[in-house]
Design brief:
It holds the Pfam family RibD_C. The structure is a single chain. Helices cover 29% and strands 31% of the residues. Helix 1 runs parallel beside helix 4. The longest helix is centred in the middle third of the chain and has 12 residues. By secondary structure, it is α/β, with parallel strands linked by helices. The strands form three sheets. Strands 1-7-10-9 form a four-stranded mixed beta sheet. It has one domain: Dihydrofolate Reductase, subunit A, CATH 3.40.430.10. 20% of the residues are buried.
């Protein structure tokens, strides 16, 4: 997930524009990073944020790297965990009323592609259930001083660093594997 240096995905007002990857190098890296993803798991809030990509290709003069990401996102399956949404607002999307770690475990076992999970509450549930193999944090050079945290309190997970990289405009990528 995209985070501030102090570990937030959005600030106290719910803003996250500081983390929008406008830089071509950052956006291209993210495109490459998720190119193997065939299914995204989202909570309602993250899904509603990502809905932009369902129609991003219709906005005039979009850069190629933005159109590539929009195409990748549109082509992927999406599972949204929400008790409040009545129907999906994007193609290739299904709604689930509640999180069920056993169903996700089976989805992982049967997958022929990578599965990505986004949203801090959903990620916390998956980490607690032992369903996460890799954690990726893309850190933007900004301190926002509070808001929605990337990781919850009370969670302990041992990891091994598998990649660290600096990319455009001071952005740092950390990728960790989860120790069994």
């Amino acid at each position: 997930m995209l985070t501030s240096l102090d570990g937030y995905i959005e600030d106290k007002e719910g803003n996250f524009g500081w983390a929008a990857p406008q830089d071509e190098q950052v956006h291209t890296y993210i495109n490459e990073l998720v190119s193997s993803v065939g299914t995204y798991l989202y909570g309602r809030g993250m899904y509603e944020t990502m809905l932009y990509w369902e129609t991003a290709h219709t906005i005039p003069n979009q850069p190629r790297f933005v159109l590539e990401w929009a195409h990748e996102w549109q082509a992927a399956e999406k599972i949204v965990y929400s008790s409040t949404l009545s129907e999906p607002r994007s193609k290739r999307t299904r709604l689930e009323q509640e999180w069920n770690p056993e169903i996700v475990r089976r989805l992982k076992a049967d997958a022929t592609h990578d599965i990505a999970l986004a949203g801090p509450a959903l990620a916390a549930q998956a980490l607690r259930a032992g369903l996460v193999d890799e954690l990726q944090q893309i850190i933007f050079p900004v301190i926002v001083g509070g808001g929605k945290r990337f990781l919850p309190d009370g969670l302990r997970v041992n990891m091994d660093l598998m990649e660290q990289r600096s990319i455009g405009n001071g952005v740092v990528v950390l990728r960790y594997t989860i120790r069994s």
